């Protein structure tokens, strides 16, 4: 009886927390369907006649939604694939051929994430400027890759470590070369882990705004720049900005939804033997 | 099929990973290991955990480098040959099946790597599967198999290779007791059928005794004795082997060698060392203490008067454990805990004082300091005495 009551209590608290967390997103979606006037209303309105007007304007904003969406997709996708291509062999070497300094190297790599991005903004901006990489997709891709690489190496490393050592040795005895062991035994086993690593990198790159806003202008501008463009000298456009935000988060939310199972499986790999 | 030779093989850890480096000053994991197998022999490496048996096997496999010495398989020095080129197959304790491959693919993996023709792969996998009676499982994934079935697949993967040497690292220890006994017999049968030189690591002396043609008893990285099961049982080289081989374990009592070099005296127990012991060896221990070893199954209940016995020991029964066919009786004699395996219908009860006797030829004597066997009876006399 008591246990049941406390379960109900927990459920209520859970729903409350979820609601508080979800509310801004709900509000964003609602605002996206409002007119600028209703969006600016000081009394919050839940009941209003929805309009697609903001979406229509937003889609045509600047170079148009699709220009930014393509840049976001292209930079996130390529940087993720590039990141995996670098992280997998690095993690493989660390997991299966560890040296005395492997632990240190891992910590050192992750420690680069301790530096705030703004701390390296000036040097990177100057380097990019002299290399002509400002407002360039590939410049952004390199930044995203470097930004995500420590986390990717760390994650892939931990998935590789979960592959039982016996299996690697069995492959060795069965006559597999290092490459064959990697491609035919370890990668298939770590696939759920690789998928969730890739998904996380994709999300982080897609949502990235600091570098996108500072290093791009038009050509390589991503959806983060698209959203920011609604904060202009003429004022804030809540409804259009919300519409742009909805257009920005929807693809990644849909992808996350589909990948959810894979993601959970990857994150708990190893916990379930 | 091949002869495997290990000459002065030493394994020292250290200089490698952090943490292990600290161990470099310690005693080697395997020290001065020497063994030459016969072609097609079944050799069991046995000893308590940490004795170096698995390390020895891993060196033969090529999963560990030998620090010193030489390992030859079929006459070829393989010390610098990678595991994949040694033409050996290994069965792991965890089975180490590839979870993402079907049973068929698990068994075919090594042949696919060798780029064997498809028809040959099919034929060899099916042949191995039928030997092990797992043909109906070929399409399944390892996770859909029971422990015993996985064990068979692991064996099958080794058989398909048709290697020169089989290495088995505690392959049965994850199975339940009944299955273990069944698989034990199957592996022995399999070995007889295939005739491939086999190394088998176990910590279970029963497994070692029932399976091995020759047994290598190890402790602290060193070989204690290499012998056939019967010889290990009848003529253990030292107290460790004597205590390790045989269940229940051998009893040990400290006794003094009499001036006649034939009589052994404890506080109340007394024995006469029979002719099976060489006089010279006991001569050198005249008047000194020795360890006397008696196997529980060689003690007999003596119903009569203890005084007239040449070989006798009396004590108060502490625990009686009836097992049906036999009864285990534990007594305290001269400060030593003694276990006797008596007839199933023995009348001994807890609290009784009983007298036990043992034939002279069944005694084992060990030096108190070195713990080495003092004098050995030939196997025949022990068996017929």
From TrEMBL, chain A:
Gene3D superfamilies: MetI-like. InterPro entries: BP-dep_ABC_trans_perm (IPR050901), MetI-like (IPR000515), MetI-like_sf (IPR035906). Residues 69-259 form the ABC transmembrane type-1 domain. Keywords: Cell membrane, Membrane, Transmembrane, Transmembrane helix, Transport. The keyword Cell cycle does not apply. GO terms for biological process: transmembrane transport. GO terms for cellular component: plasma membrane. Its main location: membrane. CDD domains: TM_PBP2 (cd06261). It comes from the Bacteria. It is a multi-pass membrane protein. Belongs to the binding-protein-dependent transport system permease family. MalFG subfamily. This is Sorbitol ABC transporter membrane protein /mannitol ABC transporter membrane protein. The lineage of its organism: Bacteria, Pseudomonadati, Pseudomonadota, Gammaproteobacteria, Oceanospirillales.
UniProtKB/TrEMBL annotation, chain B:
The keyword Magnesium does not apply. Residues 4-245 form the ABC transporter domain. GO terms for molecular function: ABC-type transporter activity; ATP binding; ATP hydrolysis activity. GO terms for biological process: carbohydrate transport. InterPro entries: AAA+_ATPase (IPR003593), ABC_transporter-like_ATP-bd (IPR003439), ABC_transporter-like_CS (IPR017871), ABC_transpr_MalK-like (IPR015855), ABC_transpr_MalK/UgpC-like (IPR047641), Mo/tungstate-bd_C_term_dom (IPR008995), NA-bd_OB-fold (IPR012340), P-loop_NTPase (IPR027417). Coiled coil: none annotated. Keywords: ATP-binding, Cell membrane, Membrane, Nucleotide-binding, Translocase, Transport. It comes from the Bacteria. Gene3D superfamilies: 2.40.50.100, Nucleic acid-binding proteins, P-loop containing nucleotide triphosphate hydrolases. SUPFAM superfamilies: MOP-like, P-loop containing nucleoside triphosphate hydrolases. SMART domains: AAA. GO terms for cellular component: ATP-binding cassette (ABC) transporter complex, substrate-binding subunit-containing. PANTHER family: MALTODEXTRIN IMPORT ATP-BINDING PROTEIN MSMX, TREHALOSE IMPORT ATP-BINDING PROTEIN SUGC. This is Carbohydrate ABC transporter ATP-binding protein (CUT1 family). It comes from Kushneria sinocarnis. The lineage of its organism: Bacteria, Pseudomonadati, Pseudomonadota, Gammaproteobacteria, Oceanospirillales.
């Amino acid at each position: 009886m008591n246990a049941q009551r406390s379960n109900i209590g927990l459920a209520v608290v859970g729903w409350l927390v979820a609601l508080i967390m979800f509310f801004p997103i709900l509000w964003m979606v609602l605002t996206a369907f409002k007119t600028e006037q209703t969006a600016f209303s000081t009394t919050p309105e839940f009941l209003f006649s929805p309009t697609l007007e903001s979406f229509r304007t937003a889609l045509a904003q600047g170079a148009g939604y699709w220009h930014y969406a393509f840049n976001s997709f292209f930079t996130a996708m390529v940087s993720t694939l590039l990141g995996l291509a670098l992280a997998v062999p690095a993690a493989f070497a660390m997991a299966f051929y560890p040296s005395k300094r492997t632990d240190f190297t891992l910590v050192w790599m992750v420690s680069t994430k301790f530096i705030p991005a703004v701390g390296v903004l000036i040097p990177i901006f100057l380097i990019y400027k002299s290399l002509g990489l400002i407002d360039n997709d590939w410049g952004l891709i390199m930044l995203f890759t470097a930004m995500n690489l420590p986390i990717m190496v760390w994650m892939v490393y931990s998935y590789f470590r979960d592959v039982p050592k016996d299996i690697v040795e069995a492959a060795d005895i069965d006559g597999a070369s290092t490459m064959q062991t990697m491609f035919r035994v370890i990668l298939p086993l770590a696939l759920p882990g690789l998928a969730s690593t890739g998904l996380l990198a994709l999300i982080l790159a897609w949502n990235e705004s600091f570098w996108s806003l500072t290093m791009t202008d038009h050509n390589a501008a991503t959806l983060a720049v698209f959203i920011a463009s609604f904060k202009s000298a003429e004022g804030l456009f809540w409804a259009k900005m919300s519409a742009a935000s909805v257009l920005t988060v929807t693809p990644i939310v849909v992808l996350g939804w589909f990948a959810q199972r894979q993601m959970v499986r990857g994150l708990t790999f190893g916990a379930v033997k | 099929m091949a002869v495997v030779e290990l000459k002065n093989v030493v394994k020292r850890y250290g200089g490698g990973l952090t943490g292990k480096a600290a161990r470099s000053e310690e005693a080697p994991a395997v020290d001065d290991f020497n063994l030459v197998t016969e072609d097609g022999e079944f050799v069991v490496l046995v000893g308590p955990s940490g004795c170096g048996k698995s390390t020895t096997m891993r060196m033969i496999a090529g999963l560990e480098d030998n620090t010193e010495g030489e390992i030859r398989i079929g006459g070829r020095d393989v010390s610098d040959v990678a595991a994949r080129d040694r033409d050996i197959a290994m069965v792991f304790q965890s089975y180490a099946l590839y979870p993402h491959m079907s049973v068929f693919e698990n068994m075919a993996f090594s042949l696919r790597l060798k780029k064997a023709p498809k028809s040959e792969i099919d034929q060899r996998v099916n042949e191995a599967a039928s030997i092990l009676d797992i043909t109906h499982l070929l399409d399944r994934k390892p996770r859909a198999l029971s422990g015993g079935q996985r064990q068979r697949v692991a064996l099958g993967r080794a058989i398909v290779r048709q290697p020169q040497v089989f290495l088995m690292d505690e392959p049965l220890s994850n199975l339940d007791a009944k299955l273990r006994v069944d698989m034990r017999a199957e592996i022995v049968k399999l070995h007889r059928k295939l005739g491939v030189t086999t190394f088998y690591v176990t910590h279970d002396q029963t497994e070692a005794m029932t399976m091995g043609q020759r047994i290598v008893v190890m402790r602290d990285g060193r070989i204690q004795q290499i012998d056939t099961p019967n010889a290990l049982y009848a003529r253990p080289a030292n107290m460790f082997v004597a205590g390790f081989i045989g269940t229940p374990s051998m009893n040990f009592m400290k006794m003094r060698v009499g001036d006649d070099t034939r009589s052994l005296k404890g506080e109340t127990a007394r024995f006469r060392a029979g002719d099976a012991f060489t006089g010279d060896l006991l001569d050198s221990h005249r008047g000194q203490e020795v360890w006397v070893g008696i196997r529980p199954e060689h003690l007999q209940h003596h119903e009569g008067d203890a005084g007239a016995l040449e070989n006798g020991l009396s004590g108060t029964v502490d625990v009686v454990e009836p097992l049906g066919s036999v009864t285990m009786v534990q007594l305290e004699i001269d400060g030593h805990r003694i276990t006797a395996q008596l007839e199933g219908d023995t009348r001994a009860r807890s609290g009784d004082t009983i007298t036990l006797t043992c034939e002279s030829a069944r005694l084992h004597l060990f030096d108190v300091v070195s713990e080495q066997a003092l004098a050995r009876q030939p196997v025949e006399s022990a068996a017929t005495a």
